[in-house]
Amino acid sequence: MAACSFRRSIASQLSKVLDLPPENLIKAISAVPVSKKRHVADFQLSIASIAEDGSSNCLTENLQLQAQKLAERLKCDAVVSEISAGPGTVNFTINRELLAKTVLQQVLKDGSEYGVKSELFSTVPRQKAVIEFSSPNIAKKFHIGHLRSTIIGNFIANLKVALGHEVTRINYLGDWGMQFGLLGVGFQLFGNREKLKSSPLQHLFEVYVEINKAAEDEGTKKLAKDFFRRMEEHDEQTLSLWKQFRDFSIEEYIRIYERLGVHFDEYSGESFYQEKSQEVLKMLEDKGLLQKTTKGTGIVDLSEKKDLSSFSTVMRSDGTSLYITRQ
């Protein structure tokens, strides 16, 4: 690409002056970030990167002097319009007419792949990468916090793909937990199936608000706990309602992602690890690590002296899992 051809041209001239192979100099020539506040060069060579005794042993004054002397020995040509010395660097400004012409020609030639065909990336080892991002809680509206994660995650995934890596994009949903026991009971009390189909997230939000008000009553709390317990016991009717919440939520999220130009290879979530969490609890019990409190909750002692000064709660008193058990 354009930047590489400019680097090669600068390296070629430096090679003749310094009597070093151009290949050794190309990586030492870096692009200078654009500044809105002041005029800066386009490329610079760090004197310390080519000094024989290494930058750690060179005095700043000596580096400055070497930069000045090297700049004086170099000449402007059809590619470089200005050469100057900086604090331990030699700076190069590219001919503006040539720069504009070269960049535009390269953009037209490479299209959407412009910027990623650099020879500097050719040595980057290709890897497999899993990028997990966005991760909203189902049955809740997509908010600004999710937007931030979505944009950043998608940028990282696109960057990895552009560099030739094999990328898997995962949306790890918050789709399991006691809140769905509350939402399930709420829908049974306040839900409307037509509204669920036409505007799922808005309607589920309205239901969630109503059931949270009702949850001040102990009887409603018990109903929610029973609903979540039936979820973990794989009760068919209970899971059917939960699955509707999940499916309608994902459909709504996909519409938002399409507007943002974002896609995922897989929609996973806490529910995927629900059965495995029971396996973890069984393993802890078999190893004698799972202890029961007087209230019936399951805990694991994390203290060095085994005096319960530090512990983690991993199971509710009714045997259902917690967030930490599903992670």
Automatic annotation (TrEMBL):
It holds the Pfam family tRNA-synt_1d. The keyword Protease does not apply. Keywords: Aminoacyl-tRNA synthetase, ATP-binding, Ligase, Nucleotide-binding, Protein biosynthesis. The keyword Transferase does not apply. Signal peptide: none annotated. Residues 123-326 form the Arginyl-tRNA synthetase catalytic core domain. GO terms for biological process: arginyl-tRNA aminoacylation; mitochondrial translation. One of its GO terms (cellular component) is mitochondrion. GO terms for molecular function: arginine-tRNA ligase activity; ATP binding. Belongs to the class-I aminoacyl-tRNA synthetase family. Catalyzes the attachment of arginine to tRNA(Arg) in a two-step reaction: arginine is first activated by ATP to form Arg-AMP and then transferred to the acceptor end of tRNA(Arg). This is Probable arginine--tRNA ligase, mitochondrial.
